[in-house]
Each structure stands twice: as C-alpha cells, then as structure tokens.
Write a structure and sequence with these properties.
Blueprint (H helix, E strand, L loop, with lengths): L1 H22 L1 E6 L1 H17 L4 E7 L1 H9 L5 E4 L5 H11 L4 E9 L1 E4 L7 E3 H8 L17 E5 L4 H9 L11 E3 L2 H10 L3 E5 L8 E2 L1 E3 L11 H5 L6 E8 L6 H10 L2 H10 L11
Parallel strand pairs: 1-2, 1-3, 6-11, 7-8, 7-9
Antiparallel strand pairs: 3-12, 4-12, 5-9, 5-10
Length: about 280
C-alpha cells in the first residue's frame, strides 16, 4: 500500500501543478502608486473571468523588481523605468530582459493642505523646498511658517522619479518625514496646514494639488489629463508593468492585453490616472 502511494505521489503533484496553472493564478507586486489601480484592474477582470485569480500587493517599485528577479511574482508594477543594474539581475535570473509595458500616464502632483494659500510653484522652488534650501512658506509667497516636508521611502519608484526629475539627483532634506506610501503622504499633508508632499494624481482627496510652473516665465499648469497627455504639465510620467518574457503567455498575456485595451484603460480613468493614447494600446 505504501509503495503504491509513493508511486502515485509524483502524479498527484503534477496534477496539483496542472490545476494551479488552469486556475490562472497571477501574482502582482510593486509600486504603491499603482496598487489601488492594480487592485481595481484585478477586481474588474476577475468579475469577467472567474477562473483567473489575481493577487495584488504593494511594497514599492524596488521591492516589486526584486520579487520579479527572484521569481516570487509574475508581474511587477513600477512607477519608474527599470534601472540597468536591475535589468542585469533579471537577465542573470531568467536569461532575458523583462518585457516592459506602459500601462497609463500620471501627473506626479505636489500637494499642500487645502488651507494653504499658495497656489503655484516653479519646479526650482519645489526642488528647493524638498532639498531643504527653502524652509519657510514666506520664501515662496506663503505665510510665515516653517515648511514640513513629507516624502516616500527610498524603495519607492515615485521617490526615485521625483529625486531624479525634480531634485536633479540631489538628496532630500534631512528633516523630510518618510512615509510608507502615497496615501500616507496625502493623509499627513491634509492634516498639516504647513505640510507639502508629492504623489500620483489619483491620490489627491483631502489635499490640494499645486499648479506647477516650468520656470518663472511660464504659466502655472494643473495636472489634468489633457495637460499630462500633451506633455504640458512639467512633472508627468508613464507607469509600467514588467514581466519575465517566459511568463508572457496564456492568462498573463490575456490580462496584460486587457488592461492596456479600452476596458482596462477605462478603469484607469475611473481611478483617477490618465489613459494611454490610442497608439500605445497595442
């Protein structure tokens, strides 16, 4: 009896693996900026494809890319492009560069309290606030009050994008308060009338997004869909999904095609981000 069970064990294991594959389990990990949208994508897709189960977690872009490299996630959500060193690690892990998909656009917004009278800042003024050079709101036309800077942890793709594209690679102020996610940044800013933070366009509830000026001579621009798609808003970006090319088939390929198509891009709009232009939905 025991020998019969032992002979059957490999077959049973194979059947379990086959059943798992048929069930269409997809794991998604990474950007906290994308986590709300990714959860809504998963919820909508599973309602139409009940045999597919999608599990979404955040943790930051860096965390998601590390999981992609060690093969503990199928898809990595990213709020910045993959770095050359991360690509190299992926090649070492699974023999190829991960496939990159642009999945939507975002106007990276600068948030202050709704009670703050400041309405617009230049990119240079924003940089000076976040690197600690400017410390009082009166230096940028606001009240005589010390500025409280809220930022993200360094595993965040949004942190890295903001550091590269707004701070020109300089460090954040030593006094910046590090928050665990974009939602936490916005909650802190909404409660602190002297606070300032940054995050994705979909997270603005409870705080006020500032108009951003490219320079002193330029007009202030709001992070609206039209301004982001036209490239008028100075701090815009694509948001991405990365996948091991060997996994980009079957249920995973179908899901990626769906979320970049018209239905998935309508979810993007409903959540508060900006859909891909039609020519990027292929």
């Amino acid at each position: 009896m025991t020998s019969t069970l032992l002979r059957c064990a490999p077959l049973a294991a194979a059947l379990v693996l086959a059943a798992t594959a048929q069930a269409g389990n997809i794991t998604v990990k990474g950007s906290d900026t994308l986590v709300v949208l990714a959860q809504k994508w998963a919820e909508t897709y599973m309602s139409k494809h009940p045999d597919t189960k999608i599990q979404v977690t955040g943790g930051g872009t860096g965390t998601g890319l590390a999981a992609l490299q060690n093969k503990s996630t199928d898809l990595c959500n990213a709020s910045r492009k993959i770095k050359p060193t991360e690509q190299a690690t992926c090649i070492k892990a699974f023999g190829k560069r991960p496939t990159e998909y642009k999945v939507c656009l975002d106007g990276l917004s600068v948030y202050v309290s709704a009670d703050n009278p400041v309405k617009e800042l230049t990119v240079a003024q924003i940089a000076d606030i976040f690197n600690g050079k400017t410390t009082n709101w009166k230096q940028v036309g606001g009240p005589d009050a010390r500025i409280t800077v809220y930022s993200r942890e360094n595993s965040s793709g949004t942190y890295e994008f903001f550091k590269e594209h707004v701070l020109s690679g300089k460090d954040f102020a030593a006094t910046a308060q590090t928050m665990p996610g974009t939602a936490a940044v916005l909650q802190a800013v909404a409660k602190d009338k002297h606070g300032i933070g940054y995050g994705g366009a979909a997270y603005g509830a409870g705080a006020k997004s500032l108009k951003v000026k490219k320079d002193e001579a330029s007009p202030g621009v709001e992070p609206t869909e039209e301004n982001v798609i036209k490239g008028i808003y100075p701090i815009w970006r694509y948001l991405y999904i990365y996948v091991n090319p060997a996994l980009d088939k079957g249920d995973i390929a179908s899901y990626l095609t769906w979320l970049r198509g018209d239905e998935g891009q309508q979810v993007v709009k409903n959540v508060g981000y900006f859909p891909l232009p039609k020519d990027l939905r292929k």
